[in-house]
Amino acid sequence: MQPFSYAKVTSQDAAMPAATRSGNATVEQNETAAFIAGGTDILGLMKDGVQTANILIDINNLPLTDIASLANGIRIGAISRMSDVAFHPKIQECYPVISQALLQSASPQLRNMATVGGNLLQRVRCGYFRDPVFPCNKRTPGLGCAAITGYNRMHAIFGASEHCIAVHPSDLAVALTALDAIIYIQGVEKERQISIHDFYLLPGDTPEKETLLQPGELIVAIEVPNSVCKSYYLKVRDRASYQFALVSVAIAIELEQDIIQSARIAFGGVAPKPWRARDAEEFLKGKAINEATFKAAGEAAVKEAKPQTHNEFKIELVKGALVRALSVVTEKL
């Protein structure tokens, strides 16, 4: 374990300067700072030598744990624990897809520690990224991607590049993508709002850049707009216990009698960011709810799929998962 210093902050005004070492101190060359709350991901990365941080800034005392109903939606504080959000009555009643995604994430012990902000920022679970023995463009740009020629069963079939084929691991991010959530970020000088669709980046030529978050910035809240949609989250994995998704799907759908008025669909486990299935959404508009419609939507969802050597099976999983999720959320089949 590398040596690091530790600081505990009690206000947002103190947190951002601490992360950038502004004011009376300056960041030394190669010195890095990182925020820590639950610590369920970053400490493991530091122990494995995958991520470095000379300074850990504890933000657990910041007032960012509220889950508040708004006139136009709900606001979730970034250091709310995953368990608290999953079991919140308003979340379970109005946004069941969020609760379902959280309850299928990690183990109960981890959900009691991990925060929603940290969950959105967890690093990829690619075994090549998490083992410094292997080359990885995320760790060291230009070194190469061992997964492309290696065992890539868990990797991307959408949105990958010649530099990285890892998939985003968060279940919560997939649910929030289907709900068009907004992420609130606080920097030293100002707060900004970013749509979750824009927040995550595809690898392209810069796989080391995963989000729009800048050094010293902190996620402070997530807002989810009001919705009349029904929603549902389905996760397909190798085992029912603590496991990351092979394929997952989040659906928010608006029905009028037996006709689909609108649908928002996001997939997890298949791309470097939560993957919005725009073609399937467009196909479903105005369609009757039946098995033929759902199967055709599945075909539309995989039109752009480009599987790797060992994960072509994910194409059928995507189609089957979408059919199953649509059947459940419409309660007709």
Description of the structure:
- The chain has 333 residues and is an alpha+beta fold.
- The chain is 29% helix and 20% strand.
- It is built from 13 helices and 12 strands.
- The chain has helices spanning 12-20, 42-47, 82-86, 89-94, 96-103, 108-113, 116-120, 146-149, 171-178, 196-199, 278-284, 291-301, 313-330; strands at 5-8, 33-36, 55-58, 67-70, 73-77, 182-186, 191-195, 218-225, 230-236, 247-256, 259-268, 275-276.
- Strands 4-5-8-6-7 form a 5-stranded antiparallel β-sheet.
- The chain starts with a strand and ends with a helix.
- 44% of the residues are buried.
- Residues 22-29 have low confidence and may be disordered.
Whole-number average pLDDT? 93
The number of distinct β-strands equals: 12
**Helical fraction:** 25-40%
What is the spatial order of strands in the main beta sheet? 4-5-8-6-7
Element-by-element helix/strand order: EHEHEEEHHHHHHHEEHEEEEEHHH
Label the overall shape: globular
Helix/strand layout:
Blueprint: E1 5-8, H1 12-20, E2 33-36, H2 42-47, E3 55-58, E4 67-70, E5 73-77, H3 82-86, H4 89-94, H5 96-103, H6 108-113, H7 116-120, H8 146-149, H9 171-178, E6 182-186, E7 191-195, H10 196-199, E8 218-225, E9 230-236, E10 247-256, E11 259-268, E12 275-276, H11 278-284, H12 291-301, H13 313-330
Parallel strand pairs: 1-3, 2-3
Antiparallel strand pairs: 4-5, 5-8, 6-7, 6-8, 9-10, 10-11, 11-12
